[in-house]
Amino acid sequence: MPNPADYQIEIADGIVLIKNQNTTIGYSRFTGAGDVEYIYVNPMYRRQGYGTLLLDEIRRTTGQIGAVHTPVSPLGTAFFGALGIVLPDPAIQ
């Protein structure tokens, strides 16, 4: 997991933002019901736990992770799959 001394988290208006002094590390857009509409982690910071940290902050803020919108990339699909989160079938949407 990332070291909390290395980043700041801001949460406002359905957005979780993780940043450091130099750049945005990642962000996610979510609803009040905990639905994850979008998640992004800067390529330089991927596979370091920041995506999971974003979801943890959504869960802390809303009390749950609700529905997850279909990811826009295969990386997102792999990320949610590794966490055991079931994604909607894109053929149904």
Beta-strand segment tally? 4
Structural class per helix/strand content?
alpha+beta
Order of strands, widest sheet? 1-2-3-4
Largest sheet, in brief, is:
4 strands, antiparallel
Oligomer: single chain
What is the helix content? 10-25%
Could you give a short description of this structure?
The chain has 93 residues and is an alpha+beta fold. It is built from 2 helices and 4 strands, in the order E-E-E-E-H-H.
Describe the structure.
- This protein is of the alpha+beta class.
- It has two helices and four strands; from the N terminus they run ββββαα.
- A four-stranded antiparallel β-sheet has the order 1-2-3-4, covered by helices on one side.
- A hairpin with a 4-residue loop joins strand 2 (15-19) and strand 3 (24-30).
- The radius of gyration is 13 Å and the shape is globular.
